[in-house]
Specification:
The complex is a heterodimer of chains A (222) and B (410). In chain A, helix 4 runs antiparallel to helix 11 and helix 8 (153-167) packs across helix 10 (183-196). Chain A has 222 residues and is an all-alpha fold. The model of chain A is unreliable at 1-23 (pLDDT under 50). Chain A has helices spanning 2-16, 32-42, 57-60, 80-97, 108-121, 126-134, 139-145, 153-167, 171-177, 183-196, 202-213, 217-220. By secondary structure, chain B is α/β, with parallel strands linked by helices. Chain B is 25% helix and 15% strand. Chain B contains nine helices and 16 strands. In chain B, strands 6-5-7-1-10-13-4-14 form an eight-stranded mixed sheet, with helices on both faces. A two-stranded antiparallel ribbon of chain B has the order 2-3. Chain B has a two-stranded antiparallel sheet with strand order 8-9. In chain B, strand 8 (280-281) and strand 9 form a beta hairpin. In chain B, helix 3 packs parallel to helix 9, helix 6 (204-217) crosses helix 7 and helix 7 runs parallel beside helix 8 (257-278). The radius of gyration of chain B is 23 Å and the shape is globular. The chains are: A mainly alpha (222), B alpha/beta (410).
Chain lengths: 222, 410
């Protein structure tokens, strides 16, 4: 699915760009604009001012965008600034979940959180999540007040597998990148790690999970 | 599979981390004997400042408002040694012994707009091929991991420097609270390798986080100044560009408003100097401020009299800069400016313009005979020499541009 999406995302990126920002990192890493768009896709279209639709001037060097005069990448490979940018971006997205609708950075965010976010990110555990929703007044409350440990172990396992597929691809796709010998072991490690922090609310768990997943080469590489 | 190029790059970064000691500021800059740590920071007051309110106050008898508008009593101007402090620049008075004020810098005869003037004063060149001074300095020195720290972009000309926005350092001081994720499924994953260094106990980034945590523990609200200081003191960067945006472009409603805006900018500079002064480098007792060359600018001055909207427009015929740094004689004033009144002006409007100077002493002169007019390239040349960089290696500043030797330590 990821491979099918990439041409579409690339075309969408090209259509959105006001001028030449089609640079990429070297070594097969995705262009900055593609990264921004892919992150929005992962979060069901949720937006944050810290990682908006378009690359902001502040983000250009962190994401390795190109020098407009020479066309050369400013930073040729992902580095420390990208780690900070991704951490800040994920944290900002999770903050949106806890932000009152009138203070959110995008008008659509409230609708996305109430309509699209949970079905997109918690599809394998939707039945249990719906039960939690019945006890709260909004999905935002579920995501910020209820905890990961309220899912069964099986649900947690499947949700983490779903997050891995959304970001890195299927086990076969992941293996093809050559960064993991055993994708199933990575899945187990991540599930165990997140379950140990299971007393935290969902948005905290997602912050941890996606801060790890979005920094994987399987996500960053074309 | 990790490519050879990636491996070499990561190995280099690992060496950078491992080559420094535990989280003590002193270890990051435990330079070999005979070498001194150095840093260079440009601070730019965006918008164009009224130099008569700060760096170049009016000291004569109060002028006719139609010729030159000032909003203070010249007799009340405060001094510290050689330096006269306009009312906006008073926050810098405690640092007078470290400062050199250069007045009467001629940018151009006519207004070329903010961007061109800003690039000129920040680079010393009108060519678009060259980057700002930190960019060109970086071409002469090996880049530290974070390259040039900045808050609002750096014009790089045809160069491709490593740039790090200060925003990307925010939040670092809260590291360590979470259990790290560990997996053995990480063969050559680039950011995982770097992230491991981030959380390692002896890396420069850990040190950066430690310094920020110390600032936070001291109850300080972390601002750009703290991130710059931590970035420098941790050994991750030696170069910075900080832009201060305080609504200086007062084409209307200049009285009081511009003064307050400019004063707010100088207060931020003073706060940064205090932060840099509080950070000790090594065990020699020297502070980060002791080893940092700081070049404070704005793109131009403002016209002498108020316009019909009670504003002051762009005046590129004079400008000022302030310098601080280890190679500088402190408490110096170079150059000056003068008012050409309406009766002597070709267009019937008074104007404020740079005065020629004696190249040997830096004193403002009345006559152009044996004198020079200061331009941004002279300031850039001075900065290059302050940093100990060979002028021959520094292509963006003409070798013919004289430096201000009178303010340099021999």
């Amino acid at each position: 699915m990821k491979r099918l999406l990439m041409p579409i995302l690339a075309a969408a990126a090209a259509a959105m760009l006001p001028f030449e920002v089609q640079a990429s990192f070297r070594g097969g890493y995705r262009s900055p604009q593609d990264l921004v768009i892919s992150i929005h896709h992962v979060f069901a279209g949720l937006r944050s001012a810290r990682c908006g639709d378009m690359l902001s001037p502040d983000d250009r060097s962190s994401l390795g965008d190109n020098n407009l005069q020479t066309g050369e990448p400013i930073v040729d490979l992902p580095g420390t600034p990208l780690i900070r940018w991704i951490d800040n971006c994920v944290a900002a997205m999770m903050t949106e979940l806890a932000t009152p609708p009138e203070q959110q950075s995008s008008r659509e965010n409230a609708a996305i959180i109430e309509r699209d976010f949970v079905p997109h990110l918690f599809a394998p555990a939707l039945s249990r999540m719906s039960a939690l929703r019945a006890e709260q007044s909004s999905w935002a409350e579920v995501l910020t007040r209820r905890t990961f440990s309220e899912l069964t172990a099986g649900d947690r396992d499947q949700v983490v597998a779903h997050w891995i597929e959304l970001t890195l691809g299927t086990p076969d796709e992941i293996e093809a990148f050559g960064r993991m010998r055993d994708p199933a072991k990575f899945h187990r490690d991540l599930t165990d790690y997140l379950s140990r922090a299971g007393a935290s609310p969902f948005n905290e768990i997602m912050k941890r999970a996606f801060s790890i997943l979005l920094k994987r080469d399987e996500f960053l590489l074309y | 599979m990790m490519q050879r190029r990636d491996f070499l790059r990561l190995s280099g970064q690992a060496a950078l981390f491992l080559g420094t000691g535990p989280s003590l500021i002193s270890r990051a800059w435990a330079a070999p004997a005979g070498t001194e740590p150095w840093f260079f920071l440009q601070i730019h007051h965006s918008g164009g400042w009224d130099v008569t309110l700060g760096t170049d106050p009016w000291l004569g008898a109060r002028p006719d408002e139609a010729e030159m508008f000032i909003e203070y009593d010249p007799a009340g101007i405060e001094r510290a040694g050689n330096i006269a402090f306009g009312p906006s620049m008073l926050p810098l008075k405690p640092f007078a012994d470290r400062m050199a004020v250069v007045n009467g810098i001629f940018m151009s005869e006519s207004d070329n707009g903010h961007e061109a003037a800003e690039n000129y004063i920040l680079s010393g060149s009108t060519s678009q091929s060259w980057g700002l001074l930190p960019v060109e300095v970086l071409e002469t020195r090996p880049s530290k991991l974070l390259g040039i720290l900045h808050n609002q972009g750096v014009y790089a000309g045809s160069r491709s420097p490593v740039l790090t926005n200060l925003n990307s350092l925010r939040g670092l001081h809260v590291t360590g609270a979470e259990e790290p994720f560990v997996t053995d499924q990480d063969q050559g994953n680039r950011l995982s390798e770097i992230a491991k260094e981030l959380s390692s106990s002896d890396g420069n980034l850990k040190e950066l986080a430690d310094i920020l945590s110390r600032f936070a523990a001291a109850g300080e609200q972390l601002e750009d100044a703290h991130y710059l200081a931590a970035g420098f003191a941790s050994g991750l960067s030696q170069l910075g560009l900080l832009r201060l945006t305080e609504n200086l472009d007062s084409h209307a409603s200049h009285p009081t408003n511009h003064l307050n805006s400019q004063k707010s900018g100088w207060e931020k500079v003073a706060q940064l100097l205090r932060v840099f002064e509080s950070v000790e480098l090594g065990s020699s007792g020297r502070s980060l401020l002791d080893r940092t060359t700081i070049f404070i600018t704005s793109e131009f001055a403002r016209t002498a009299a108020l316009n019909t909207s009670q504003g002051k427009d762009h005046n590129p015929m004079t400008n000022s800069v302030v310098l601080l740094g280890p190679g500088l004689k402190g408490n110096q004033v170079v150059g000056g400016s003068h008012l050409v009144p309406r009766r002597r002006s070709r267009n019937g409007m008074s104007y404020h313009i740079a005065s020629p100077i004696d190249p040997a002493t830096g004193r403002a002169l009345d006559s152009r005979e044996n004198a020079m007019i200061l331009r941004p390239e002279n300031l850039a040349a001075t900065v290059v020499e302050l940093l100990g960089i060979s002028r021959r290696r520094f292509g963006s500043v003409s070798p013919k541009a004289a430096s201000l030797t009178s303010i340099l330590k021999k």
